[in-house]
């Protein structure tokens, strides 16, 4: 799955996702990616976020919406991402998932839940400072 | 201190990031950037979890989900369980731009896509066929069914419902190679 958020110099924000879902899923199953507020969310007055992982579990908590609302309330992107992950972890301590967040000033962050196959989450950031995609990582 | 514009994407998909960044750098819109970035991943089948030829379902078919959202207008276009169309994010954009709806699903979404000019083609590849055949050979493991008979942890279907029983917590077969 890819989840992507973009912000331009004028403050316009957008978010998107694309996925082929879980391998061996039951036909008809849909995960969080196309669900607004779950797979991704963008509000140019607050921020944007995109989630990835076990969509069956993550979609129950609308983590992208939650992260954006936390940024609207003043949380920095990293803290907003961590809170969205923590909300899921309370019910599913071992879930596989991560989220990226960015606010209206272009600050960004990420968070993930530590799982056997996920101890560090890698994501890409491109901005005018680097002028090229740079890989970043977050410890889960 | 932060630099604008900025594009952030999940996982280390460099080509997708570069495609989106190229749009923004040349003065394109954030929507175009997100669409182009996700579409690049669909073309390159990023880590097998995006685009055609990956994550076959129980019947061996690859289906796609995608969504795009405009943070200024709150307009959204999304597709789920899309069949036979490779450019899922493009169809999501078409839902946003050519309908008053938000989410189209399944076979009807594919018909909509074809009507909008997207090409219908088989999403199966040798890789997805191999993943599917290995799963069948392994008694359909891993498996997302529960409270059915025959026992889904040991056997393939078809399945019938059985009385719901208290079950030990099962490890979900979601990992770095199979995720949303």
Structure description:
In chain A, the strands form three sheets. Chain A has a four-stranded antiparallel sheet, with helices on one face. Chain A has a two-stranded antiparallel ribbon with strand order 1-2. In chain A, helix 2 packs across helix 3. The radius of gyration of chain A is 14 Å and the shape is globular. In chain A, a hairpin with a 4-residue loop joins strand 5 and strand 6. The two termini of chain A are 19 Å apart. The mean pLDDT of chain A is 98. With 140 residues, chain A is an alpha+beta fold. With 180 residues, chain B is of the alpha+beta class. Helices cover 33% and strands 14% of the residues of chain B. Chain B is built from five helices and six strands, in the order βααββαβααββ. Chain B has a three-stranded mixed sheet. In chain B, strands 5-6 form a two-stranded antiparallel ribbon. In chain B, helix 3 links the parallel strand 3 and strand 4. The longest helix of chain B is centred in the N-terminal third of the chain and has 15 residues. The two termini of chain B are 32 Å apart. The mean pLDDT of chain B is 96. The chains are: A alpha+beta (140), B alpha+beta (180). At the A-B interface, strand 1, strand 2, strand 3, strand 4 and helix 1 of A face strand 1, helix 1, helix 2, strand 2 and strand 3 of B.
């Amino acid at each position: 799955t890819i989840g992507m958020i973009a912000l331009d110099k004028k403050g316009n924000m957008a978010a998107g996702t694309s996925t082929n879902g879980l391998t061996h899923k039951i036909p008809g199953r849909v995960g969080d990616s196309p669900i607004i507020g779950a797979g991704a969310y963008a509000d140019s007055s607050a921020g944007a976020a995109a989630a990835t992982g076990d969509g069956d579990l993550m979609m129950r908590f609308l983590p992208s919406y939650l992260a954006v609302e936390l940024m609207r309330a003043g949380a920095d992107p990293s803290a907003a991402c961590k809170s969205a992950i923590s909300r899921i972890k309370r019910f599913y301590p071992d879930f596989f998932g991560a989220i990226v967040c960015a606010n209206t000033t272009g600050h960004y962050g990420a968070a993930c839940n530590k799982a056997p196959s996920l101890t560090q989450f890698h994501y890409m950031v491109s901005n005018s400072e680097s002028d090229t995609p740079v890989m970043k990582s977050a410890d889960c | 201190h932060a630099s604008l514009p900025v594009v952030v994407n999940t996982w280390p998909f460099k080509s997708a990031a570069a495609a989106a960044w190229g749009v923004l750098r040349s003065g394109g819109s954030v929507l175009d950037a997100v669409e182009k970035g996700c579409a690049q991943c669909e073309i390159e089948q990023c880590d097998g979890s995006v685009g055609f030829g990956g994550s076959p379902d129980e019947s061996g078919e690859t289906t796609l989900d995608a969504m795009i959202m405009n943070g200024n207008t709150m307009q959204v276009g999304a597709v789920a369980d899309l069949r036979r169309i490779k450019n899922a994010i493009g169809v999501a954009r078409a839902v946003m731009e050519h309908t008053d709806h938000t989410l189209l699903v399944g076979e009807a979404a594919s018909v909509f896509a074809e009507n909008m000019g997207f090409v219908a083609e088989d999403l199966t590849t040798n890789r997805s066929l191999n993943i599917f055949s290995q799963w069948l050979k392994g008694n359909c493991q891993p498996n997302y069914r529960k409270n059915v008979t025959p026992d889904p942890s040991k056997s393939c279907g078809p399945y019938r419902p059985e009385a719901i029983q208290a079950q030990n917590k099962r490890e979900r077969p979601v990992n770095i190679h199979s995720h949303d």
